[in-house]
Amino acid sequence: MTTLLPAAEAPIYYLLWFDTEDYIEPTSDDAALRLATDLENMGVKATFKIVGEKARVLESRGRKDVIRALARHDIGYHTNYHSIPPAPAMYLKSLGLLEGAAELERREASGVTDLRRIFGVTPSCYGQPGSSWGPQANIALRRLGIPVYMDEGSHIGLNDRPFWYMGLLHMFHLGANSMRADINAPSKLDAAKKRFDEAAAKLRAQGGGFIHTYYHPTEFVATEFWDAVNFGRGKYTAPSDYRRPNLRTKESSEQTYRILLDYVAHIKKQPGVRIVTARDLPQLIDSPHSLVDVNEIRGNLLRSIDVNGPHSPADQLLALLGFQSMDVDGPTARVDSTVAATSIPRDLFNKGRDEAVEFIEAHKRLPSHVWFGNERLSLADFTATLAGDQSGPTVAVRRGTLGFEKNVATDPRRTYDWAIHPEGFEAPELLEMARLQAWTIKPARLR
Length: 447
Prior knowledge:
Layout: E1 12-20, H1 27-41, E2 47-50, H2 52-60, H3 64-71, E3 74-77, H4 88-92, H5 97-119, E4 125-126, H6 136-144, E5 148-150, E6 163-165, E7 168-171, H7 189-205, E8 209-215, H8 226-231, H9 250-268, E9 273-276, H10 281-284, H11 294-303, H12 313-320, E10 343-345, H13 346-363, E11 369-372, E12 375-378, H14 379-387, E13 394-396, H15 428-437, E14 442-443
Parallel strand pairs: 1-2, 1-8, 1-9, 2-3, 4-5, 5-7
Antiparallel strand pairs: 6-7, 6-14, 10-13, 11-12
């Protein structure tokens, strides 16, 4: 059990990561080398989330110096091709949970293999390109051996803190705890340092936590993003027609490095702050599994099916069904109840309950509904009905309220607004799937 530490002892962990993606502009190679080298000289280890094509281009350009420098940091994964259409959300929105997971794995497996070959490690984490997010990625990442989802976005989150979702540790949607210094504005550096100090103080008072910062090496040498230039609004550009982004002046570029290093130096000297990488996270976070007190959760589930302390809604339902410490995915569909009666005979209810257990054991995911003869209860209504079961000859049918869905975004256009998606692109299908999978969401607690 995690206990609240005194503020003076509460750890603050800081993650600095770079989406290392620009395979078009050669000076971005030098930017990655400069960042990796300067940070190493400071005694700071960062996470470089590398695009598969970027790694292959470094290899083909003979940039062993860049590869060696990056390898001395932590290596994460940032898709195989990043912005070449179709982006992940484009092709995932028309696919279901399992089909989408298989398709993302098919598209991304070779990039992960190339990172293993070039850098000698399995990537520590994954992050989507831009806002091109889909819940199916989590299943594919488990199959690819990547245990951490680290990025920033508004698709799903849990109180600006790390969380578990679909069996993966998520350093995602940290909100107020995601921050960066403006590398274009020296006059704003002191304010950025102050924001960090204030966030760290707030987290200390809450028992500790995580703050993260992300950049792109290309930002330090270019004034525009390489992909917006070549793939804006879903446009396809052949490699022979790639256009290089506009570059910074030498003076402007040097300023960006100075601001970043000054900012990181400030963070590094703060008492109680430890700079970590995505590879460190599994050792810093407590186990996602803990004993569920069935008697304690019944009343809560009758009021609202929601995260309860360290337990996901799925954890609580599994405990009611007799499971312990089991990872499952959420249901694949939202199905309404058809049971019209106010109660279900005991024998029939037990039969339906046993079939739900068998389904979970067979598929390692929650069913979308549970059958009782020719009628069914939705998963929410089944959960509430099970929680209220008083062991009589009949079981009163209860209606479940899904409180956990508030953790998922509701605006399918703004959530997916990215320069590489086609104009007006939206993906309500993916947000609905995210809500179904949010049965698995729960806080990630510090050890």
